[in-house]
Amino acid sequence: MNITTMTATVVWENCLIFIKDNISPQSYRTWFEPTKAVKLANNALSIQVPSKFFYEWLEEHYVKILRSALVRELGENAKLLYVINMGNSKEGDASLMERLPSSNRASVKEQAINVPLKTKNPELKNPFVIPGIRDVKIDSQLNVNFNFENFLEGDSNRLARSAGYAIANKPGGTSFNPLLIFGGVGLGKTHLSHAIGVEVKEKFPEKTVLYVSAEKFTQQYIESVKKNNRNDFIHFYQIIDVLIVDDVQFLSGKSGTQDVFFHIFNHLHQNGKQVILTSDKAPVDMQDIEQRLLSRFKWGLSAELNFPDYETRVAIIKNKLFHDGVDMPEEIIQFLANNIKTNIRELEGAIISLIAHSSYNKSEITLDLAKTLVENYVKNTKREVSIDYIQKIVSDYFSMDVETLQSKTRKRHIVQARQLAMYFSKKLTKASLASIGRQIGKRDHATVLHACKTVDNLSMTDKQFKKYVEDLTQKLSM
User: Fold this and answer.
1) Which band of pLDDT confidence, cut at 50, 70 and 90, is reported for residue 342?
2) Per the omega criterion (within 30 degrees of 0), is the bond before 34 cis?
3) Cα–Cα dist 320/38, whole Å
4) 358 phi and psi angles, rounded to 5 deg
5) Where are the alpha helices (DSSP H) in 242-329?
């Protein structure tokens, strides 16, 4: 290290001491710890920052305190220049650029190469930043109709909903960080994640909340690599207070995206920011996700959304009818709740279709109309059977009751029946291995995984067992 760099380092360290005493610890860690002094010449201190976005943020939010710190060390004629590292370039490469902060433009007009924010390179703009506003504003991408008021609580979602509400009241301040909400299609994962964000914005309007799908996150990352502004991408996500990533299983097999998300996750978690994830699988069932990332997913709470029970389905129907201002006979409500069991989205869709059909034909909603519509609706919708239904079919096939199938006995024919129930539950439902095991005799996920492998092996080596699989496949597809 030469004398100029040593002197620059000392000056900048003194500036940082002053800055640290005047801003929050979190802001200091985020925006000042990554900087370093490069050189000091002619009363101008050059510091290196990781990206253009980083530089712009310092200019927008900390220029006054930077000015005060420099004047204390170098006097009224002090200047600050930024060295912006573009990618992995070394100091001195052509991709390094020096910029002059706006506070110093008047004193060195001949070097004022900076331009107003509104005319800067549009590639620096994140698609979620509202253009034309000097202070960075972030559109949360939240659907305000997905709130806690219309996310009804039941046995199937009580843990996830309660944890979500606790987070909304204290984002980043609970042990539920991250919160991973997982479950099958149409059970309310996206709704609940939006509800948390909506509640946070209502109670803490100053916090930045962002909802993004894992697919969109991946597309943004790829685009940032193409445009050589990966650091801008990272630093944008590091300023979010509550980050909601939907369908995180989409990151499977995408090593580059996983790597950048790992670093963003670590930064947010270490700085007390809240991370909320949704997935159609539990962490233990996710394939092609790096182990270090999976371990982070398990730091907080993994809460499963299960199929809603009958009472919850009735409550969902009544809540939907109330908000739509529609009256419906109790027998029709009960019919709908009894016949659409596995998907809340399908249940609400059937209600909408029934109301629309009645309105279009100017006829009353009758039980016959409901039966006709539901029959066609369910027929044309890919049905997902429940684990309870699978256990019933398998138990009947082997002439035993469900309690016997779930029992601890090691009798061969009962063990095989239980393994078949686990196999078909894994094959025909979106439930996690842990959930399947819990519902079939309170076993763990390893037992379910072993059962699935055993069924696969026996199907290839045992003709009688192969017939069991074929018969049950037919029964469960009816």
Assistant:
1) low
2) no
3) 62
4) -65, -40
5) 255-270, 291-297, 310-324
27-58 per-position pLDDT tens digit: 788 888 888 888 888 888 888 887 777 777 78
Which residues face 211 on adjacent strands? 244
Task: Centre a 10 Å sphere on the Cβ of residue 371 and count the other Cβ atoms it contains.
Answer: 13
Q: Mean pLDDT over residues 133-141, rounded?
A: 61
Residue (of 184, 209, 183, 182) closest to 195 by Cα position:
209
Are the CB atoms for 26 and 33 separated by under 8 Å? no
Average pLDDT, the chain: 80
Instruction: Answer yes or no: same fold for 158-305 and 387-476.
Output: no
* Architecture field, domain 3-115: 2-Layer Sandwich (3.30)
pLDDT above 70: percentage of residues in the chain? 84
**CATH superfamily ID and name for 158-305:** P-loop containing nucleotide triphosphate hydrolases (3.40.50.300)
Token pair listed for 243: 């980050």
Dihedral sign, Cα of residue 48, residue 54, residue 59, residue 65: negative
Q: Give, in order, the Cα–Cα distances in Å from 82 to each of 29, 39, 56, 97, 444.
A: 18, 10, 10, 8, 56
Task: List the beta strands (DSSP E) in 100-255.
Answer: 179-183, 209-213, 242-246
Q: What is the pLDDT of residues 82-112, one digit of tens each?
A: 887 544 433 333 333 444 444 443 232 222 2
CATH annotation of 387-476: 1.10.1750.10
Q: Give the CA radius of gyration of the chain.
A: 29
Q: Where are the domains of the chain?
A: 3-115, 158-305, 310-379, 387-476
Query: In which residue are the tokens 């908000």 written?
Result: 323
* Whether 476 contacts 424, CB under 8 Å: yes
**217-265: pLDDT as tens digits:** 998 999 888 888 888 888 889 889 999 999 998 888 888 899 999 989 9
What string of DSSP letters covers 411-429?
Answer: -HHHHHHHHHHHHHHHHHS
Residue type for position 48: Q
Give the separation between CA 95 and CA 341, rounded to whole angstroms: 59
| CATH class given for the domain over 310-379 | mainly alpha
CA distance 334 to 345: 17
The Cα 46–Cα 74 span in angstroms is 13
Which among 69, 78, 54 is positioned nearest to 23, based on CA atoms?
Answer: 69
Lowest mean pLDDT among 53-67, 94-108, 146-160: 94-108
Distance of alpha carbon 369 from alpha carbon 223, whole angstroms: 51
